[in-house]
Protein 1
Amino acid sequence: MMERDFLFLINCRKARELCSKKLDGTITHKERFLLRFHLLLCSLCRNTLCQFQAIQKGIRTLFEPYESESSDIKLPEEAKVQIKRQLIE
Ligand SMILES: [Zn+2]
């Protein structure tokens, strides 16, 4: 039963999902393993998810201090998306 679990491969969509869980810090040990395993086999995810992670991290460190200080100066979600898009292109 255990072996079956570990042989289970996740798809790219799931990998992306796990990646955001990882960023949120809600990922389990098993999920982390599955994500790593997927990244080993899938170069596409390795490239895109790593970029995605770096950008997410960058945006968080940029805006989190402001957001936690005062809820009045929250950056709209749309603005974040715009910035993210510009960083990717
Ligand atoms: Zn993939």
Note: The mean pLDDT is 77.
Protein 2
Amino acid sequence: MPPKRKRGSGNDRKRNTSNREESQSSTTLGQSKAAFGRCVYVSDRYEKVARIGEGTYGIVYKAIDKVTSRHVALKRSIPHHQADDGFPATSLRELQTLRLCSNHDHIVKLLDVTVSSRKISGQDGGGSGNVFFVFEFCEYDLANLIDDYYKRRGRSPFDIRAVKTLMSHLLKALRYMHSRCLIHRDVKLSNLLYCSKTGMLKLADFGLSRPFAPNCENSISLTPTVASLWYRPPELLFGAITYSQAIDLWAAGCIFTELAFGHPVLNGKNEMDQINKIIEYVGDIPGMNGDDWPEMRDLPRIKDGAVKVPAASSSPRRLLDLCSNWSLAGLRLLTSLLEYNPRKRWTASYALEQSEYLNGAEQPPYTSAEMPRRFL
Ligand SMILES: Nc1ncnc2c1ncn2[C@@H]1O[C@H](COP(=O)(O)OP(=O)(O)OP(=O)(O)O)[C@@H](O)[C@H]1O
Ligand SMILES: [Mg+2]
């Protein structure tokens, strides 16, 4: 995989089925001896080959597992506070979520947790006591893959059948997380990995994930400044502090457009620009007095006047122009994910079961074995 390239500018992408599919795997942390015994020193077992990614909270290396001779990805967390704050909160969240979800086909597999060696402090990256998560290695992240391909070819590397497959893999991962009362909160292209050997998409990076209480009207009180700007749904842009797993589905809608077109569409430069982009492409936000989304009036940034929702005009709905050659079923899925009212937005489970686009006989999704392996 080529070194990670940042897409866009500013904080756009940064933070501020079947029983078989969901069956247990014997190689996940839950069953591994390392989870119960002494932590392995990273350099005793893994040899770093290259640095492949650096995000807000982690540095990721490609490495070789000296025991199995397989490639793995090592993620070292970057402490964002003073050392005496202890284990970074994002890493703790990531670990908690992975322990519950890492046995799913479309969620990156956590193989081990290791620490840097005290004997050779400094060599493993930043001194002793660092924790490294060891993941299965995936050849691509979809942000890099799509950006690089678009630069060379001016289109998406994926045809319509492959887009359907990737969307159904993503929705299966989300259905699984949401059924376990967990929201990802940072679904974006660079957090979607593609294993070309198996033709499978894997959802990754659970540093912002949080549990939610299903009985509290499907909402939790949390910070609205989650989800990278380009993938942030209207309710968060309007300052909602209670929100639901529906935020992940809006992001899935944004991913759908990027997979299909090969470039981001809702790529605002700041929050106001993002809101304007959404209106320009998706259409007018249901009016203040309309019944389509009555809860909108009470959202903090609407109430205090910080965000002014334009009166219903005739917004160009540019997305419809961009998708003029799409089937009705494709449009239905897209508009049902990019639905303003989070209560009306399709759930992952509903989309997987009801979408004619994903389930219809015409141009059906590829099986994983039929998915592209190389992108020339
Ligand atoms: N298992 C893996 N296999 C291959 N590459 C990986 C793997 N995990 C992560 N990467 C690469 O490292 C990058 C950063 O990883 P990750 O998203 O987990 O870290 P992060 O610091 O939380 O990121 P950010 O804040 O940018 O979202 C990914 O975008 C991807 O390019
Ligand atoms: Mg990431």
Note: The chain has two domains: 8-136, 140-370.
Protein 3
Amino acid sequence: MTAMLLPLLLSLVAPTALLAPVGAQDADPGYAPEDIWSEEYAFQIFPWGPHGNFEQLQFREYHDYFSMKQRMQTLAAYYPDFLQYHEGLLGGVNARGDEMTSEDYEGWFYKHSSPWMKITGNVQGGDYNDFNDDDGNYADRPDVMLVGNHHAREWMSYEVPMFFLETIAYYYGKAGIDNDGDGLVDEDGWDGIDNDGDCLLLNATNQDSNGDGTPCGPGDLGVDEDFSEQFITDLVNTREIYLIPMLNTDGNRYDREEYCGETAWENCYRSGWRKNLRDNTVTGVTPIPDVDEEVDEGCDGVDLNRNYQFEWGAPLGATGPLFPGMCYADGANNDVYNGPVNYEDNDDDGLV
Ligand SMILES: [Ca+2]
Ligand SMILES: [Ca+2]
Ligand SMILES: [Ca+2]
Ligand SMILES: [Ca+2]
């Protein structure tokens, strides 16, 4: 009942009274999260699901390429009004005049495209784009592209876009929801500030729940805990969002299936595979032929965030060395090889 009564107390009781919660007897007066908010909010149990892998849906376990893709397809099937799933790109003549096919956008080794989601209001309306094979193109809606997992080993970087996707999928079009269960609706929106002051009611040890050293700052329990669902709906309706959670499908599969394994953070002394799996032995960069079709760990791969053609290698190659690894057995790999520059999609990641 505390959670239901608190809003009333906040409006009726003098501020000093709030500093002495019932039952506090130690030197750290204040509430525990579950005293103020719903159990779901206090323990960060997300409302989406319930079908599928619970641990992954609750972001307590990493997706892999396959489960990520399956979840994207499931969400698109549930919410066809504003989500449209795509396996990759159809191809055609790109903006630079090059003829591209859908295979050009597949990874070198595992041959996956990068799955992506088109997100906008009435996504099946608007114009059709025959290069992307997507609907929902509206001249008056700005495009926003969100890309995760340039670096194969940075698994969290595709979970963040997946969390974004789950949030939008669940809350889009819903009326105001009391997200934290305190009886108030939309009282603390997304601005990194504890607008209603409830975080400050926690005991001191709970005020920095994300452990970044800043109490009641961005990311802490009680900060931005009751955003506006209408804000999400408006945001989606006025933009075309292109969400690519896992750009580096090749590298990520290799990292978790071959290079490090599923428990990489516990036992991968090499710190993980970073690049994609571009075959550097058959590109003319090195004279050494690729005698097999396997990944050559001392040679292959391009560091995707160093391969953008904008300011490639600038200044003087400082953003990335010009050569891949040693390209012989057990030779050192160059983890930050930036790949060639020729203003084409020379690393097959779908981005130029
Ligand atoms: Ca609330
Ligand atoms: Ca809300
Ligand atoms: Ca904090
Ligand atoms: Ca708050």
Note: The chain has ten helices and eight strands.
